[in-house]
């Protein structure tokens, strides 16, 4: 009985520490994004509140907490208040199985990757409920868009994770990292890294995949009617998920806390791990400052016509290499060869003059209309 009580106390302390650490991470990410985008765009970012504007995220948090929290008159109040929790809780619970070093985690789960897949998909329910319970046509449209987008990009994301599991032979995050002592999986499976990273951007709704809350089209998406602390919960979940994508890319493809010169002490291993994670997050911010938002048809076409077929090709290549026992470098060559096809297609598309593309689209539309008439 005493052992059980101690376990409960330790687990509770671990969860409180995790929530505190994630809150600090969110504050650091909001400051880092503003300063990094300011540097990219020739601006200075926040400078007034604290040295180098480092206290600006705290000022924003205080503003959101004390801002008036308005509920629409026709909204379903229970579901309206419950939806933010359904978005935030899954994004928090998955951190229970995430290791920051070999011995630095809340709980080591043998099915850690399965646990992540199972819980991360629940946030879709929260976004749909947020739109439906708001009694707003714009919010409902944003909820439907979010469901379509997240379900579409779940498929290539999960297929890529399965390919990693096939190579590592385990669903435990620690075993996956241990399998990258010699060579990171980013080298063995560059195609999988690209698919996972793009799908992850779409899953968290970061630019250029922020279509379901595109202000210019659906006026804020499924949480357009939210304000104050409830809106802050959506904001908190978005940045936690952004950090999660950086963590997963590091664990699954960049070797986690491994480095080429042997094992590190736990603290140094965690610092190295966080350095890799923040490097991935900076790439995510870089993409936001570089690429424009996609249209909804481009967004769905990229998933169903490009990423999903490539994810099936990727898992087939991994299965063939494992089944026939080919050298690992053959998987790298096959992945690069397949990855070169969409890259070449995109480069060729970009080099085609806009007038020529418009003429082809017009001819295609005329031929389709003639077929319908006939």
Q: What can you tell me about this protein's structure?
A:
- The chain has 374 residues and is an all-alpha fold.
- It is built from 15 helices and no strands.
- The protein has helices at 2-40, 56-66, 77-93, 112-120, 123-133, 137-168, 173-178, 185-188, 190-204, 215-218, 228-253, 266-288, 296-324, 328-351, 354-373.
- The longest helix has 39 residues, at 2-40.
- The protein is globular, with a radius of gyration of 22 Å.
- The termini are far apart.
**Helix share bin:** over 70%
Low-confidence stretches: none
Intertermini distance: 79 Å
This entry's quaternary arrangement is single chain
Number of separate helices: 15
**What is the H-and-E element order?**
HHHHHHHHHHHHHHH
Task: Estimate the global geometry from the Cα principal axes.
Answer: globular
Biggest pleated-sheet summary = none
**What do the pLDDT scores average to?**
87
E-strand count: 0
Instruction: Please tell me how large the radius of gyration is.
Output: 22 Å
Topology:
Layout: H1 2-40, H2 56-66, H3 77-93, H4 112-120, H5 123-133, H6 137-168, H7 173-178, H8 185-188, H9 190-204, H10 215-218, H11 228-253, H12 266-288, H13 296-324, H14 328-351, H15 354-373
């Amino acid at each position: 009985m005493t052992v059980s009580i101690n376990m409960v106390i330790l687990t509770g302390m671990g969860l409180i520490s995790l929530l505190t650490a994630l809150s600090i991470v969110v504050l650091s990410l909001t400051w880092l994004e503003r300063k990094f985008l300011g540097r990219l765009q020739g601006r200075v970012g926040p400078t007034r509140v604290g040295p180098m504007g480092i206290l600006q995220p705290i000022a924003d948090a205080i503003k959101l907490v004390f801002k008036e929290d308005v509920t629409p008159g026709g909204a379903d109040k229970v579901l309206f208040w419950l939806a933010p929790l359904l978005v935030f809780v899954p994004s928090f619970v998955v951190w229970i199985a995430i290791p920051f070093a070999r011995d630095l985690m809340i709980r080591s789960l043998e099915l850690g990757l399965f646990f992540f897949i199972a819980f991360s998909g629940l946030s879709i329910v929260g976004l749909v409920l947020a739109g439906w319970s708001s009694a707003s046509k714009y919010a409902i449209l944003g909820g439907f868009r979010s469901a379509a987008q997240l379900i579409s990009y779940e498929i290539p994301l999960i297929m890529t994770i399965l390919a990693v599991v096939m190579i590592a032979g385990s669903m435990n995050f620690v075993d996956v990292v241990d399998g990258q002592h010699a060579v990171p999986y980013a080298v063995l499976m560059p195609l999988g890294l690209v698919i996972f990273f793009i799908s992850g951007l779409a899953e968290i709704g970061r630019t250029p995949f922020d279509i379901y809350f595109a202000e210019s089209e659906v006026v804020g998406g499924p949480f357009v009617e939210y304000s104050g602390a409830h809106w802050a919960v959506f904001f908190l979940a978005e940045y936690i998920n952004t950090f999660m994508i950086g963590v997963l890319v590091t664990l699954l493809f960049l070797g986690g806390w491994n480095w080429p010169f042997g094992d590190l002490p736990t603290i140094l291993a965690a610092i190295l791990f966080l350095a890799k994670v923040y490097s991935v997050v900076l790439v995510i911010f870089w993409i936001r400052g570089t690429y424009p938002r996609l249209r909804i048809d481009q967004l769905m076409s990229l998933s169903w016509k490009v990423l999903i077929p490539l994810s099936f090709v990727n898992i087939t290549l991994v299965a063939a290499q494992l089944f026939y026992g080919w050298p690992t470098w053959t998987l790298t060559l096959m992945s690069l060869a397949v990855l070169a096809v969409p890259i070449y297609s995109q480069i060729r598309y970009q080099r085609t003059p806009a007038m020529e593309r418009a003429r082809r689209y017009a001819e295609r539309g005329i031929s389709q209309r003639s077929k319908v008439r006939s």
